[in-house]
Amino acid sequence: MKLNQLICKAASVYPDGFVLEYWDMGKECPRENPEGGDTLAQFIARELADTYDSKADDRMQVETAVRAMESAAENIKDVAIALEDVMDELSPDARPWICPECGFSMRRTYESLAGNGGPICPKCDCDMKLEEQSCVKKS
Ligand SMILES: [Zn+2]
After folding, report:
1. I need a labelling partner for 71 at 20 to 30 A (CA). Which of 51, 79, 89, 134 fits?
2. How far apart are CA 23 and CA 33, in angstroms?
């Protein structure tokens, strides 16, 4: 499979096909585009090129590309969750939630729960429980 085919497939679903703004079809490699203004499109073009193995068979090439994009999506999702945590931590209405499996904890407001449902542990992928509010006096 040609690298250009992978890039075209990626561009076909990317907003305005912008991945192509960072791709040289003739040389079949990423190109600089300082005016582009879309670093995610640039990342996709570079990452697909970086992980591409011209000697691998078609199936392996596609699998590698899929893995690279899924891994990046996962990392971006983790960053979004972490930033959402910061936002919730800032709220005085936030309640502590804890993962029954690993003990990971986070604070969430009812507002964010209404939009997203109960929090899911980013480590174990299981439902988190509202931590009991204890009335024990601190000494
Ligand atoms: Zn957990």
Report:
1. 89
2. 9
**Contacts (Cβ under 8 Å, ≥6 apart) of 93:** 109, 110, 111
Name the residue ranges covered by the structural domains of the chain: 1-79, 91-134
CATH architecture group of domain 91-134: Single Sheet (2.20)
Look up the pTM and report it.
Answer: 0.69
Residue 69 alpha carbon to ligand 1 centre in Å: 24
Ion ligand 1 residue ranges (Cβ < 5 Å): 99, 101-102, 104, 121, 123-124
Give the per-residue pLDDT at 46.
98
Å from CA of 93 to ligand 1 middle: 23
